[in-house]
Amino acid sequence: MSTQALKRNPSSRLQPTPRTPRRDQPEPMSLRTDLYLIAHDPDTGRPHLDKEAIAVGLAGAVLLELGHAGRVHLGSRQTSRHGTQQHTTSGNITLLDVSATGDAINDAALTLLWRMGGTVDTHRFIHEFATTSLYEQVRDHLVATGILHTVTRRRYWFIRIRTRQPANAGHTVRARMRIRDVARLYRPRPQDIALAALVTALGLTRYLYLPDTSVTGVFLRLAELVGPEHPLRDVTSVIRPHRIRYQ
User: Fold this and answer.
1) Which stretch of DSSP H or E encloses residue 125?
2) How confident is the model over 86-103, as pLDDT tens digits?
3) Which residue, 23, 78, 227, 236, has fewest beta-carbon neighbours within 10 Å?
4) 185, 16 in Cβ contact below 8 A?
5) At 215, which helix (H) or strand (E)?
Protein backbone atom coordinates (compact mmCIF):
# COMPACT_ATOMS: atom_id res chain seq x y z
CA MET A 1 0.00 0.00 0.00
CA SER A 2 1.40 3.39 -1.01
CA THR A 3 0.90 6.54 0.95
CA GLN A 4 0.91 10.08 -0.38
CA ALA A 5 2.63 12.75 1.66
CA LEU A 6 0.86 16.03 2.17
CA LYS A 7 2.90 19.11 1.37
CA ARG A 8 2.43 21.91 3.84
CA ASN A 9 3.74 25.43 3.80
CA PRO A 10 4.71 26.57 7.31
CA SER A 11 4.37 30.23 6.35
CA SER A 12 0.74 29.76 5.31
CA ARG A 13 -0.35 29.87 8.92
CA LEU A 14 0.92 33.43 9.19
CA GLN A 15 -0.98 34.67 6.16
CA PRO A 16 -4.71 35.26 6.80
CA THR A 17 -6.88 34.27 3.90
CA PRO A 18 -10.33 35.60 3.08
CA ARG A 19 -13.15 33.32 4.08
CA THR A 20 -15.34 31.94 1.32
CA PRO A 21 -18.93 31.49 2.50
CA ARG A 22 -20.54 28.10 2.02
CA ARG A 23 -23.46 27.72 -0.31
CA ASP A 24 -25.74 26.64 2.52
CA GLN A 25 -24.71 29.59 4.70
CA PRO A 26 -27.48 32.22 4.98
CA GLU A 27 -26.87 35.67 3.57
CA PRO A 28 -26.11 38.36 6.17
CA MET A 29 -29.03 40.52 7.14
CA SER A 30 -29.15 44.27 6.73
CA LEU A 31 -26.95 46.50 8.82
CA ARG A 32 -29.86 48.03 10.70
CA THR A 33 -31.31 44.59 11.48
CA ASP A 34 -28.09 43.32 13.03
CA LEU A 35 -27.68 46.54 15.01
CA TYR A 36 -31.23 46.27 16.34
CA LEU A 37 -30.70 42.66 17.42
CA ILE A 38 -27.44 43.42 19.22
CA ALA A 39 -29.02 46.42 20.97
CA HIS A 40 -31.70 44.22 22.61
CA ASP A 41 -31.64 41.31 25.02
CA PRO A 42 -32.54 38.22 22.96
CA ASP A 43 -34.27 36.52 25.92
CA THR A 44 -36.47 39.40 27.09
CA GLY A 45 -36.52 41.83 24.16
CA ARG A 46 -35.50 44.62 26.53
CA PRO A 47 -33.30 47.31 24.93
CA HIS A 48 -29.82 47.76 26.32
CA LEU A 49 -29.94 51.50 25.57
CA ASP A 50 -32.45 54.28 25.52
CA LYS A 51 -34.67 53.95 22.44
CA GLU A 52 -33.68 57.43 21.26
CA ALA A 53 -30.02 56.40 21.27
CA ILE A 54 -30.84 53.23 19.33
CA ALA A 55 -32.82 55.30 16.81
CA VAL A 56 -29.77 57.49 16.18
CA GLY A 57 -27.70 54.36 15.62
CA LEU A 58 -30.31 52.94 13.25
CA ALA A 59 -30.32 56.20 11.27
CA GLY A 60 -26.57 55.90 10.87
CA ALA A 61 -26.94 52.27 9.80
CA VAL A 62 -29.49 53.16 7.10
CA LEU A 63 -27.23 55.95 5.86
CA LEU A 64 -24.24 53.62 5.60
CA GLU A 65 -26.35 51.01 3.79
CA LEU A 66 -27.32 53.61 1.20
CA GLY A 67 -23.67 54.56 0.84
CA HIS A 68 -22.65 50.94 0.25
CA ALA A 69 -25.41 50.63 -2.37
CA GLY A 70 -24.18 53.72 -4.23
CA ARG A 71 -27.35 55.71 -3.55
CA VAL A 72 -25.58 58.46 -1.62
CA HIS A 73 -22.04 59.77 -1.35
CA LEU A 74 -20.61 60.28 2.10
CA GLY A 75 -18.08 63.08 2.16
CA SER A 76 -15.05 62.67 4.39
CA ARG A 77 -14.29 64.91 7.32
CA GLN A 78 -11.76 67.65 6.76
CA THR A 79 -9.43 68.95 9.45
CA SER A 80 -7.82 72.37 9.15
CA ARG A 81 -5.48 74.29 11.41
CA HIS A 82 -5.59 78.00 12.11
CA GLY A 83 -2.58 78.81 14.19
CA THR A 84 -2.76 76.68 17.32
CA GLN A 85 -6.46 75.84 16.89
CA GLN A 86 -7.71 72.79 15.02
CA HIS A 87 -11.11 72.75 13.34
CA THR A 88 -12.90 69.66 11.99
CA THR A 89 -15.59 70.12 9.36
CA SER A 90 -18.46 67.67 9.40
CA GLY A 91 -18.93 65.56 6.30
CA ASN A 92 -21.83 66.03 3.91
CA ILE A 93 -24.25 63.60 2.30
CA THR A 94 -24.85 63.95 -1.43
CA LEU A 95 -27.90 62.25 -2.91
CA LEU A 96 -27.00 60.32 -6.09
CA ASP A 97 -30.07 58.22 -6.87
CA VAL A 98 -33.56 58.87 -5.50
CA SER A 99 -35.30 56.00 -7.30
CA ALA A 100 -37.21 53.45 -5.22
CA THR A 101 -35.19 50.68 -3.58
CA GLY A 102 -38.08 48.37 -2.69
CA ASP A 103 -37.44 48.93 1.02
CA ALA A 104 -39.80 51.36 2.76
CA ILE A 105 -37.25 52.57 5.34
CA ASN A 106 -34.48 53.14 2.80
CA ASP A 107 -36.95 54.92 0.51
CA ALA A 108 -38.00 57.17 3.40
CA ALA A 109 -34.36 58.12 3.97
CA LEU A 110 -33.87 58.98 0.29
CA THR A 111 -37.07 61.03 0.25
CA LEU A 112 -35.95 62.98 3.32
CA LEU A 113 -32.59 63.69 1.70
CA TRP A 114 -34.35 64.94 -1.42
CA ARG A 115 -36.62 67.21 0.61
CA MET A 116 -33.61 68.58 2.50
CA GLY A 117 -31.97 69.68 -0.74
CA GLY A 118 -29.92 66.69 -1.84
CA THR A 119 -26.74 67.78 -0.07
CA VAL A 120 -27.10 67.72 3.71
CA ASP A 121 -24.83 67.85 6.73
CA THR A 122 -24.37 64.34 8.15
CA HIS A 123 -25.19 65.37 11.71
CA ARG A 124 -28.38 67.14 10.67
CA PHE A 125 -29.72 64.26 8.60
CA ILE A 126 -29.08 61.58 11.22
CA HIS A 127 -30.80 63.62 13.92
CA GLU A 128 -33.85 64.42 11.78
CA PHE A 129 -34.23 60.92 10.38
CA ALA A 130 -33.97 59.37 13.85
CA THR A 131 -36.96 61.42 15.03
CA THR A 132 -39.30 60.08 12.31
CA SER A 133 -40.39 57.13 14.50
CA LEU A 134 -37.48 55.20 13.02
CA TYR A 135 -37.16 52.87 16.00
CA GLU A 136 -40.80 51.78 15.76
CA GLN A 137 -40.59 51.44 11.97
CA VAL A 138 -37.58 49.13 12.13
CA ARG A 139 -39.16 47.08 14.93
CA ASP A 140 -42.47 46.69 13.08
CA HIS A 141 -40.67 45.76 9.87
CA LEU A 142 -38.76 43.01 11.68
CA VAL A 143 -42.02 41.70 13.11
CA ALA A 144 -43.67 41.73 9.68
CA THR A 145 -40.77 39.84 8.10
CA GLY A 146 -40.73 37.21 10.86
CA ILE A 147 -37.34 38.08 12.35
CA LEU A 148 -39.07 39.21 15.57
CA HIS A 149 -42.20 37.76 17.13
CA THR A 150 -44.48 39.20 19.78
CA VAL A 151 -44.47 37.53 23.21
CA THR A 152 -47.09 38.36 25.84
CA ARG A 153 -46.16 37.87 29.47
CA ARG A 154 -48.08 38.33 32.68
CA ARG A 155 -46.93 40.25 35.73
CA TYR A 156 -48.82 40.08 39.02
CA TRP A 157 -51.47 37.97 37.21
CA PHE A 158 -53.32 40.99 35.81
CA ILE A 159 -50.68 43.06 33.99
CA ARG A 160 -49.82 41.93 30.48
CA ILE A 161 -46.51 42.96 28.94
CA ARG A 162 -45.81 42.57 25.25
CA THR A 163 -42.24 42.24 24.04
CA ARG A 164 -40.65 41.60 20.66
CA GLN A 165 -38.03 38.90 20.72
CA PRO A 166 -35.98 37.21 17.99
CA ALA A 167 -37.83 34.32 16.41
CA ASN A 168 -34.51 32.57 15.84
CA ALA A 169 -31.67 32.95 18.35
CA GLY A 170 -29.20 32.26 15.56
CA HIS A 171 -29.86 35.68 14.01
CA THR A 172 -28.38 37.49 17.01
CA VAL A 173 -25.46 35.07 17.25
CA ARG A 174 -24.57 35.56 13.58
CA ALA A 175 -24.74 39.35 14.03
CA ARG A 176 -22.20 39.13 16.85
CA MET A 177 -19.95 36.86 14.80
CA ARG A 178 -19.89 39.43 12.00
CA ILE A 179 -18.15 41.80 14.38
CA ARG A 180 -15.65 39.14 15.42
CA ASP A 181 -14.80 38.59 11.76
CA VAL A 182 -13.51 42.17 11.57
CA ALA A 183 -10.53 41.11 13.71
CA ARG A 184 -10.17 37.61 12.26
CA LEU A 185 -10.35 38.15 8.50
CA TYR A 186 -7.66 39.75 6.40
CA ARG A 187 -10.19 41.73 4.35
CA PRO A 188 -13.46 42.07 6.27
CA ARG A 189 -16.59 43.15 4.46
CA PRO A 190 -17.32 46.92 4.56
CA GLN A 191 -20.73 46.12 6.09
CA ASP A 192 -19.07 44.21 8.92
CA ILE A 193 -16.67 47.08 9.56
CA ALA A 194 -19.61 49.49 9.70
CA LEU A 195 -21.50 47.23 12.13
CA ALA A 196 -18.48 46.95 14.43
CA ALA A 197 -18.01 50.72 14.37
CA LEU A 198 -21.67 51.39 15.18
CA VAL A 199 -21.74 48.87 18.03
CA THR A 200 -18.54 50.34 19.46
CA ALA A 201 -19.84 53.90 19.20
CA LEU A 202 -23.04 52.95 21.03
CA GLY A 203 -21.09 51.18 23.77
CA LEU A 204 -22.65 47.78 23.08
CA THR A 205 -19.44 45.75 23.07
CA ARG A 206 -20.23 44.31 26.51
CA TYR A 207 -23.30 42.63 25.02
CA LEU A 208 -21.34 40.83 22.30
CA TYR A 209 -20.44 38.08 24.81
CA LEU A 210 -17.07 37.62 23.15
CA PRO A 211 -13.72 37.06 24.87
CA ASP A 212 -11.86 40.20 25.89
CA THR A 213 -9.12 39.38 23.40
CA SER A 214 -11.66 39.34 20.56
CA VAL A 215 -13.11 42.71 21.56
CA THR A 216 -9.62 44.19 21.84
CA GLY A 217 -8.81 42.82 18.40
CA VAL A 218 -11.90 44.56 17.00
CA PHE A 219 -10.79 47.87 18.52
CA LEU A 220 -7.32 47.54 17.02
CA ARG A 221 -8.65 46.61 13.58
CA LEU A 222 -11.10 49.52 13.57
CA ALA A 223 -8.27 51.91 14.41
CA GLU A 224 -6.34 50.44 11.48
CA LEU A 225 -9.19 50.39 8.95
CA VAL A 226 -11.04 53.61 9.83
CA GLY A 227 -8.78 56.63 9.50
CA PRO A 228 -9.46 60.07 11.01
CA GLU A 229 -10.99 61.36 7.74
CA HIS A 230 -12.99 58.23 6.94
CA PRO A 231 -16.74 58.93 6.36
CA LEU A 232 -17.57 56.24 8.92
CA ARG A 233 -15.79 58.31 11.55
CA ASP A 234 -18.20 61.20 10.96
CA VAL A 235 -21.25 58.95 11.35
CA THR A 236 -20.02 57.43 14.61
CA SER A 237 -19.20 60.87 16.01
CA VAL A 238 -22.94 61.66 15.83
CA ILE A 239 -23.93 58.43 17.55
CA ARG A 240 -21.40 58.34 20.38
CA PRO A 241 -22.82 61.20 22.54
CA HIS A 242 -26.30 59.62 22.52
CA ARG A 243 -25.56 56.31 24.19
CA ILE A 244 -27.60 56.13 27.38
CA ARG A 245 -27.47 52.76 29.06
CA TYR A 246 -30.35 51.52 31.18
CA GLN A 247 -29.43 51.08 34.82
Assistant:
1) helix 122-130
2) 444 557 899 999 999 999
3) 23
4) yes
5) helix 212-225
